[in-house]
Amino acid sequence: MNKNLIVIVGPTAIGKTSLSIALAKYFDCEIVSADSRQFYREMSIGTAAPTIKELKEAKHHFIQHKSIKEEYSVGDFERDALTKLTELFKHNDYAILIGGSGLYINAVTNGLDHFPETGIEIRKKLQEEYTNKGIENLQQQLKILDPEYYNKVDLYNTHRVMRALEVCISTGLPYSSFLKKPKKKRPFQVIKIGITADREVIYERINKRVDLMIEGGLVNEVKNLYNYKTLNALNTVGYKEIFKYLDNEWSIDFAISEIKKNTRRFAKRQLTWFKKDIEIEWFGYKKNNTSIITYIKKKSL
Known about the structure:
There is one protein chain. About 50% of the residues lie in helices and about 10% in strands. By secondary structure, the protein is of the alpha/beta class. The protein has two domains: about 5-115 and about 180-300, Rossmann fold; about 120-180, Histone, subunit A (Orthogonal Bundle). The chain is globular. The model has no long low-confidence stretch (mean pLDDT about 95). Monomer.
């Protein structure tokens, strides 16, 4: 097998984009983004999407290729990403997959798990509970019904929490029990690179990034999307907090502090997910790229 997919993972704001561009230049290959928040063209500042300059430095795919008004699932992404990789591997022995979402990375490298159909009544009931009691109520239900998945899911991703509860309630089995199927075979070798740092450094980088987002016009970006705030794509960190400010529920300073806090929580969950993957080779965020390139070349022999 001489086709190699270099997978770059790690917590948000750790420097995955800059590393992916450096590796794309070295291996003369292209980048497939698995960041589900960066799929949407209306969301740029709050998702820390690659800049125009960065996009020119290396060819990227699945960056702002959809509208928030379009439905786009992880299953859709798995299909589209594999199609794109098949095309890329016709001309190159390397391609890069980058992202901070373990679910989307896993969909490409191992394939999605398949779940039983669930009743629409369960979905409606959960939606009503969410509307009336908030996400915390659903989180507690998930903690009881499936503590394993509770400990690794993004608890503030309403769609994923509700989907897990649907399966738990309809089958009487934990959602996580459907996540242990055999991996699908892929026509390429996967080389996983993880980038990390001490927690204090990660949190400092997150806080700085949020400040830069605010300076870069995040409030105006969210304001322009206000009429679509109920869409699932916008139920994400950086947007939902500013909606609270625009609704006069929070001050702008408190909204910013909540973005930082929720992003730090997200980074912690990212690391919890990725640290369980023994296939990932971890490097410090200041590590010289030469050592990473050496590792990749050795693995691809």
